[in-house]
Amino acid sequence: MSPSWLIVVASLLFATMGVFVRLASHHYGSGEIVMYRGVVGALMIGAVSRWRGDSLRTTLPAQHFLRSLSGVAALCLWFYAIAKLPLATAMTLNYTSSLWLAMFLLGGAAVWRRKPVELGLVLVAVVGFAGVVLVLQPTIEHDQWWNGLAGLLSGMLSAAGYLQVTTLARRGEPESRIVFYFSIGGIVGGAALSTLTGWHEHSWSSMGLLLAVGALATAAQLMLTRAYARGRTLVNANLQYLGIGFSFLYGVLLFDERVTWMAMAGMVLIVGAGAYATALHIPVLSARSLGPEKR
User: Fold this and answer.
1) How many beta carbons lie within 10 A of that of residue 2, not counting itself?
2) Which of 30, 45, 133, 144 could be 79's S-S partner, Cβ–Cβ 3.0 to 4.6 Å?
3) In this predicted structure, what is the pLDDT of residue 283?
4) CB-based contact 31:82 (threshold 8 Å)
């Protein structure tokens, strides 16, 4: 499967996971969902790796630690923003990751004086984010700016995590190993957050929701990791906007959310931005261009 199609399928799986996260949030806190998502992911990857005879031992523990730190911190900040802000606002702030990614890559090009990022893709990122705003129609009250900052930081840390995934893959780490250590980070971070906020009892139905969240997240994360390892960074980032379109459709079909002309216009911008990104054939800056080969 091509990197672009991997992103499309991963976006659909993440949107489906979001439905189960919403249902599970009636039974568990955010930290618990993050932790159990990591538990399911680590067990799935560990079992498959053992069956295939693959090793999960790494020679890059520091890089995996940084990737897990940024990814888990982004996830926790996003859940915090969801708890403190309107859901649409928190979602929009998290999807600024593509804009942060474009700024990181442009900054790397300026510092290292390598081939610059294709500005058409940067423009696509901005157009795609405008589509996100139209679909979600976010608002922030005057007394919620600190909470909004948490959501904005979640987008920035997500972008940093994508670059770290690219770097790990370039150094020979398979996607299963990258996702495994990210899952371990989720277990540790989620458990720490749950210790502070409290734990909840299980039922068979609630455990089923957690299992669905973990399985969907792991499959989507593996696809996402492979796409960022093989594909063009900003193309992948732009295609991820499709997740908003999928989530919007789930909201209409499952949660009776209203369809507005602004939302429909936003979906057109999101899909159009992703299609235009894949149509551009000019190579873009990758993680390799952020610094020397042995950074």
Assistant:
1) 11
2) 30
3) 40
4) no
Q: Which three-class secondary structure string do you get for 55-121?
A: CCCCCCHHHHHHHHHHHHHHHHHHHHHHHHCCHHHHHHHHCCHHHHHHHHHHHHHHHHCCCCCCHHH
H-state helical runs in the chain: 3-24, 30-52, 61-84, 87-94, 97-112, 119-136, 145-170, 175-197, 204-230, 233-239, 242-255, 261-279
Residue with token string 């299992």: 211
Angle, in degrees to the nearest 10, between helices 61-84 and 30-52:
150
State both tokens at 187: 């277990």
Q: Does residue 175 have a pLDDT over 90?
A: no
At 124 the three-state DSSP class reads helix
Q: What's this model's pTM, rounded to 2 decimal places?
A: 0.77
Q: Is the predicted pLDDT of residue 293 greater than 70, yes or no?
A: no
Using one digit for the tens of pLDDT, what is the confidence trace for 59-68? Answer: 898 999 998 9
pLDDT digits (tens, 9 = 90+) for 136-164: 777 666 666 778 888 888 888 988 887 88
Structure tokens at 270: 């999101």
